[in-house]
Amino acid sequence: MSDASPSVNDAILQVEHLSMKFGGLVAIGDLSFQARRGEITALIGPNGAGKTTVFNCITGFYKPSEGMLTLNRRDGSSYLLERLPNHEIPARAKVARTFQNIRLFSGMTLLENLLVAQHNKLMKASGYTILGLFGFSGYRTASAESIDLARHWLEKADLVDRADDPAGDLPYGAQRRLEIARAMCTGPELLCLDEPAAGLNPKESMALNALLMDIKDNTGTSILLIEHDMAVVMQISDHVVVLEYGRKISDGSPHAVRTDPRVIAAYLGVEDEDVETVLIEVGDEDVIEQLDTGPDATHGPGSSSSYFAGPVTDTVGHSEGERVTVSKGASKAGQVDARSGAAARPASPAEAKPTEKPSAAKSSAAKPAAKAPAKPKTPGDSNRGGGNE
Ligand SMILES: Nc1ncnc2c1ncn2[C@@H]1O[C@H](COP(=O)(O)OP(=O)(O)OP(=O)(O)O)[C@@H](O)[C@H]1O
Q1: Which atom of ligand 1 is nearest to the CA of 328?
Q2: ipTM for the complex?
Q3: pTM value?
Q4: Dist. CA 52–CA 46, nearest whole Å
Q5: Ligand 1 binding site (Cβ under 6 Å of any ligand atom)
Q6: What is the pLDDT of residue 311?
Q7: What is the 272 CA–ligand 1 centroid distance (Å)?
Q8: Looking at ligand 1, which residue's alpha carbon is closest to its atom 30?
Q9: Ligand 1 atom closest to Cα of residue 56
Q10: InterPro entries, alphabetically (predicted)?
Q11: Which atom belonging to ligand 1 lies closest to the Cα atom of 49?
Q12: Would you say residue 318 lies in a domain?
């Protein structure tokens, strides 16, 4: 633990030069960004861009190959997360997370799920003895406080009426909110949510948005969010970081990001130089205007995102019906560490389409993708991306 430097006081999380390699596959390459305290920061990008890998590095599931992850707590203390054992990250650095797949104790009641989350606090109050459970007044006080906290979060998640039902009986959207409530019972300063809106209907998405805004406005907990649902991202995020092939291609306000040609290129699965053609075809004047004034040179690749990404051997984006969707396999990492010369991870059979996204020649496969959309045109407009799991 070290004292926080004044320059990072408003950054709850600083990711600096983070790299994560799996053999020859570079899942994350030299990634740097900040999540500011009290804000909702969204981490977005096509499937396989490396978002969950970033979460896994932050929460200690993976030890990064390179880089520094600094968590600055409100009390001024700072932790280098890559050096903490993963079981200490929630307790000491106050980082909590949820997963892409719901991980509740489905046979336990909602209340029990939230009490289990407070297990460490209760064990401490018991003095780690059986006698302590029955004898210590401290334990009784802690137990009552835990129940109060659980009830508080059940109310916030609009689930208090079902406190005594098994968690597995809840509808999907309610289970998602329960997971967030459970994470909040650990008193996190940084809450990492991996695709919380995946599979939710519009009403459930609205309830989720309300819960996340409530957390942001009333608890001071900062949120780092991976999400494919652009309606959620654009509505509630203060700051958006966009990844493609493990590299940052854009970083800014939701508006800046949704009109960034590099982001549109990544989401449509076309080369950067084809973006203008695509947008002219679909008639997006805002973005065309920005293309005329030129992109922000401080982020992302110069001429082509695939230049930065290294060799790419995967599918290009495609649209379904009239809606532009996030291509499921647009970025499934065909990225290879050039130094190792190892082969790219083969895409799964479902993803392994015979199309490629060549960096030099214009992809003929990309063209149909460009022509299909008629309604939403930018990432911000594509409502439920095809990337939802
Ligand atoms: N443990 C692992 N071993 C090998 N490769 C991995 C491992 N974890 C992730 N990868 C690879 O790293 C790349 C990034 O994966 P990651 O799951 O972080 O992407 P993502 O952006 O979260 O995708 P999605 O939106 O589909 O969840 C992928 O190519 C993935 O196959």
Answers
A1: 26
A2: 0.96
A3: 0.70
A4: 12
A5: 22, 25, 27, 45, 47-53, 332-333, 345, 387
A6: 27
A7: 24
A8: 48
A9: 18
A10: AAA+_ATPase, ABC_AA/LPS_Transport, ABC_transporter-like_ATP-bd, BCA_ABC_TP_C, P-loop_NTPase
A11: 21
A12: yes
Range of the domain at 289: 269-371
Along the chain (389 residues), what's the average pLDDT of each consecutive run of 10 residues?
Answer: 48 96 93 96 93 95 95 94 90 89 80 83 61 62 82 93 90 92 94 92 91 94 92 91 94 90 78 64 57 46 30 29 36 43 37 34 33 38 36
Distance from the alpha carbon of residue 50 to the mean position of ligand 1, in angstroms:
5
**Is 363 contained in some domain?**
yes
